[in-house]
Specification:
The chain has helices spanning 4-19, 77-86, 99-107, 117-122, 137-146, 168-196, 201-212; strands at 29-33, 38-41, 57-60, 66-68, 92-96, 111-112, 125-126, 128-129, 153-156, 160-165. The protein is an alpha+beta fold and 213 residues long.
């Protein structure tokens, strides 16, 4: 099994996600499908700007048994495996703590996606997955119950987001679209609150300015 190319793709995708501000340090992780039986997963606690293809772990999808790679795989490997088992159409699964979408995940409210390119990328509605500890089977089970064949983005309460897609770069686009949508919806909510609470306008304006920066 030649996995070099796809392991290198994991590295390149991590660097790109870091460059765009969706990954920071060791925060965030990826799984890419290699074939029907195997996935490539980012290693645990590894700076993605220094990671190499040799650091990327190859696991059996069925039981997460490690078959290649010297490092320990991400604690969220089970989360990604749930997606890739349930969605044979999915090639890539990305978990991020991207700033604005993660803020929306803290609010615990599902997002409605407007018709158009974003809806084709993300789905009609982005659900909220209830909180569970990072890396736990409980979190994986909660995500599994929320998975839908026409939904490619999920907010995880107090824990960031997960996006998936049929190709690696479509999954990256879903991450980008989710961040843009989250910013639009959050600005709208802040504007509505400012109208209701005039005394809070100076503080709310500082948030608007930070989002626009």
């Amino acid at each position: 099994m030649n996995t070099q190319n796809i392991r290198q793709t994991v590295v390149e995708l991590c660097v790109e996600l870091s460059r765009r501000g969706h990954f920071s340090g060791t925060g965030g992780n990826i799984a890419l499908r290699i074939d029907a039986a195997h996935i490539a997963v980012t290693p645990s606690a590894t700076d993605y700007l220094t990671m190499t293809a040799a650091d990327v772990c190859v696991l059996r999808l069925a039981d997460l048994q490690q078959v290649e790679g010297e490092r320990t795989p991400s604690v969220e490997s089970g989360l990604h495996a749930r997606v890739l088992r349930a969605r044979p159409d999915v090639q890539a699964s990305i978990h991020t703590h991207q700033p604005v979408a993660s803020a929306c995940a803290l609010l615990g409210q599902a997002l409605t996606v407007p018709a158009g390119p974003m809806q084709r990328s993300l789905g009609r509605r982005i659900p909220v997955v209830g909180y569970a500890p990072s890396g736990s089977g409980w979190l994986s089970s909660r995500l599994a119950r929320a998975l839908r064949p026409d939904t490619n983005a999920y907010l995880m309460l107090n824990h960031g987001v997960l996006c998936c897609a049929a190709t690696t770069w479509a999954a990256l686009q879903a991450v980008e679209d989710l961040e843009a949508l989250s910013k639009t919806l959050l600005l709208h909510a802040i504007s509505a609150r400012a109208e209701r609470e005039p005394l809070a306008q100076p503080a709310l304006q500082r948030i608007v300015d930070a989002l626009a920066a």
